[in-house]
Amino acid sequence: MELRELTKKEFDNYAINHPxxxxxQTSAWGRFMEGDKFHAYxxxxxxxxxxxxxxxxxxxxxxxxxxxxxxAPRGFLIDYKNxxxxxxxxxxxxxxxxxxxxxxxxxxxxxxxxxxxxxGNIIDGGVYNxxxxxxxxxxxxxxxxxxxxxxxxxxxxxxxxxxxxxxxNFSPKARQTVRRNKRLGFKVRDFxxxxxxxxxxxxxxxxxxxxxxxxxxxxxxxxxxSFDGNIQFREVYFKKDxxxxxxxxxxxEVIKEKEVRTSNYHNSKMxxxxxxxxxxxxxxxxxxxxxxKEYFSKCSDDASMGIYxxxxxxxxxxxxxxxxxxxxxxxxASYTLHYEMIKYAIENGYKYYNLYEIGNIxxxxxxxxxxxxxxxxFGGEVVELVGEYxxxxxxxxxxxxxxxxxxxxxxxxxxx
Length: 416
Known about the structure:
Blueprint: E1 2-5, H1 8-15, H2 27-33, E2 38-47, E3 50-60, E4 68-72, E5 77-78, H3 83-99, E6 102-107, H4 131-138, E7 142-144, E8 152-157, H5 163-168, H6 172-184, E9 187-190, H7 196-210, E10 212-213, H8 217-226, E11 231-239, H9 240-266, H10 272-297, E12 302-313, E13 316-324, H11 334-347, E14 352-357, H12 369-375, E15 381-384, E16 388-392, H13 398-404, E17 414-415
Parallel strand pairs: 4-6, 13-14
Antiparallel strand pairs: 1-2, 2-3, 3-4, 3-5, 6-16, 7-16, 8-14, 8-15, 9-11, 10-17, 11-12, 12-13
GO molecular function, one term: aminoacyltransferase activity
InterPro entries: Acyl_CoA_acyltransferase, FEMABX, PG_Glycine_Bridge_Synth
Keywords: Acyltransferase, Cell shape, Cell wall biogenesis/degradation, Peptidoglycan synthesis, Transferase
């Protein structure tokens, strides 16, 4: 095998649609990470002029120190079933890192351990990738505790599915909410990034609610610039007059149903007990709709309820971050936002819709349990990734290397 440095274009041509591809194994992520702390390298392994494996490598640049720490976020992009290929590629990457004064390498491949359903139950007869840990060990990698990237994700498989197929797999609550929001007139539109402070205000609310540390404005500005064309900010909103008009229509429909029922009752087509029960139900429904109408009448004419950020690149659409304005939380508008983006993902040929981080669902103290309980309403699969592995090149620097990895500016929830 011959290891070569690749141009950004050469690397992306291989990486973006690779089965194990991730937005963090792209030149866009490399551009985002480059600066005074990291430098990005793009390497590929060739056999008979055919590329058989590749990785974007980030080197941590320590001021006044020549020793470098390397990290392949969501790498390598290679066939992990082929032990000899993995060992050979690792050895060539190791040589490359040594040439660059590297002393340590961390990887966390974007490959799941085993198939699980939305409840996290292991699927009999599904994928079982325990060989990955074995083959990585044979390539001299050491399994370590996961600290940098989310290991547990919620993801919807969209392959060969229509929006109706996916929607029918939503929980009853999610389906009812999407239908209700559509009747009310909730819609989704592009968010103008010039108003990024509004997005940050929502993220700050989320941070205060869950006691998390949030990225800076510069983080989002740099991310937008780096992924330009493959990043979307979308907001869910309503127009007051339209919603009130829709509620009036709903009230009229209930009144018409009452009139038809009254006529049928007088013509002896139903029992008195049934008639009274349905009348009471409809009276309560009218009262509920009137309360809803009163609530919306006090809202602004064009109300933005929430904003989310999505990476749309390679195999998947990733719902990376976002939130709902606190005063609109009870309206469950996020269901509409995700439904519309799932539809977008299907229409544009993406294989997955990634709802992202859910925390370790096997841990009773999982701080992201509420996030998991919400996301499983979309009927996706729980993804447990194989986790982080270290390749110690110079043992003298191992402790130092692991100390500096918290400097990595990733996208993982960090609690205060």
